[in-house]
Structure formats: structure tokens, C-alpha cells
Amino acid sequence: MEHLNPAIGRRRLIRILREKGITDEQVLDAFDKVDRHLFVDGAMYAQAYDDNALPIGSGQTISQPYVVALMTELLQIKKDEKILEIGTGSGFQTAILGRFTRRVYTIERHRELSDTARKRLREMGYANIVFKVGDGSIGWPQHGPFDKIIVTAGAPVLPLTLTDQLADGGRMVIPMGDKDRQDLVVYEKDARGVLTQFTAAQVVFVPLIGNQGWQD
Fold this sequence. Notes:
about 25% helix, seven-stranded mixed β-sheet, Rossmann fold, alpha/beta, 9 strands
């Protein structure tokens, strides 16, 4: 099967992403540079380049590649920006973000997942990622404000602690809704600090657990 070969698998996946409407060449190039099979359990290797979410342990998943690409594209990242990621998970989305911005701050509530992702990304040569174990729903105010915020878990309501940490002119992408299905919402903060929003897609994420999310 062709997707067992990482290079062929990446090219095949990029074709799928293009067919689904991803047009940002920087995002597609990042997918061509990051080996997704390194972020999944060996038993899942054969499925690593399918456009599906896969389990990674601790009740979490590595997101569907299309959703990762869409959220990254919606962020409209620039080279010199500072990004906050809520939900490190396997570290795959983190790696994609880390390829074209100066600093990524990433928070994961499961220590085992955070430690594994940290080790994996360090071995892959990433030196621009800062890790934290804790409640992602309250963000990381010590390092804010952030130019971009990406939340990779579904929130019941908008976490105001995160919008407070979004820089003027910044953009946040977050799934919001119930535990079974969410709207992928993009928030933009103008130079006066006023938020506007639009819905980009319907998605399914694991719940955002924490003070500003679902209760454990």
C-alpha cells in the first residue's frame, strides 16, 4: 500500500488537502516536511497518512490532517509571530506551527503526552517550542499577549481568559459547541480590542477540560 512509504504518503495526503480546498502553500509545504507517522503508535503506522483522526492514548487523538491544515490556514501565521497552542497532544500540530513562526507556546493537561511530545520534537530538531503541563483553558498569561491562539479541543463557551491574552490585531481559532460536535470559530481582535467572529466549519474534537471549559 502506497501510504506505507512516508514520502509517497505525504504527497498523497497533500493531494487530498488540495482537493478539499487547502490553498496556503506554506501550510502544504509544512505537511510535506513533517512525517506524521512519527507521531502515532506503531500499530497505526499504516494509517498515518490517511485523512483521519487516530488515537494517541490518554483518551486523546491526533487530529484529522485536513482539520490541522484548515486551522493552520485560518490562523494566517506570519514569520515573526508568537503562537499559543491549547492541547499539545501528539505534537503534530505543534510541529506544523513550529515550521513557520518564531515561537510556539503549547499547553497539555496530560503530562505523559506532553513529555512524549517534548522528547519527540526535541529529537526532530525543534528549538522554538515551549511546553507546559496544565489547564490550557486559562492560557499562559505570563507569556502573553499572543499574536495567534489555536485551541485543539472543543469548548462549551468562549474562554474569556484566552481572548484577554490575544493581542490586538490577533486571531484565534477554536472549536465551540457540545461534546459531540462543534463549530470551528475564528475570532479576530481589532486594534481597539473589539472581537469579531465567523464560523469556518463543523468539526469534532475531544472536550476542552478546565476552569474555562468542561469540568472533568
